[in-house]
User: Fold this.
Amino acid sequence: MPESHSIEIQHIAKLARLRLTDEEIGRYRSQIEGILSYIDTLSRYDLQGVEPTAHAMPVHDMLRVDEAYPWFDQERALSNAPKRHADQFQIPKVIE
Assistant:
């Protein structure tokens, strides 16, 4: 791994207000070094002309057409209401 990638795990942990054991510091250091090493591997490829993508496969939104259509009339919507007051649902008072 290049020297420019030296990672100060203790400094990062301090910024994140974490207390790490020496074992955790070693484990995190090796994990981060592995990630950075893999990024170095990827940077060797010529990606000129390759468009950035968020998904490996194309994603197509399946949206229905937004159309207005008849729905319940007011009487049918209120037909199952346990209690009604005029043309509205009547519910028990929740806040005193």
